Amino acid sequence: MAFSIGDMLILLCRHKKLSRHLHSTRLSPKSSPGIRDTLTILLFFNIFVLMSFVDSIVSWSRTMFPDN
C-alpha cells in the first residue's frame, strides 16, 4: 500500500513539473488539481494507517481478553 501511494505521489509530482508552464498558481487563489489530488491521496493513506492501527488494537484486545 505504501509503495503504491508513493508511486502515485511521484507521478503527480512529475505531472506538476510538466504542466507548470501551462498554469500559474500565482494567478489563481485556488489550489491546483495536482495539489488537491496529492492531499487526497495522503488523506486516504492516513485513514488507512489509522484504521490498520485500530484493527491491530482490537485484534490484540480480543486475543488478550477472549471472554469479553
UniProtKB/TrEMBL annotation:
Gene Ontology molecular function terms on file: pheromone receptor activity
Residue ranges of the TM segments: 39-60
Entry superkingdom: Eukaryota
Any Gene Ontology CC annotation: plasma membrane
InterPro entries attached to this UniProt entry: Vmron_rcpt_1
The entry's keywords: Cell membrane, G-protein coupled receptor, Membrane, Pheromone response, Receptor, Transducer, Transmembrane, Transmembrane helix
Membrane topology: Multi-pass membrane protein
GO BP: response to pheromone
Cellular localisation: Cell membrane
Family to which the UniProt record says this protein belongs: Belongs to the G-protein coupled receptor 1 family.
Protein's recorded name: Vomeronasal type-1 receptor
Protein species of origin: Myodes glareolus
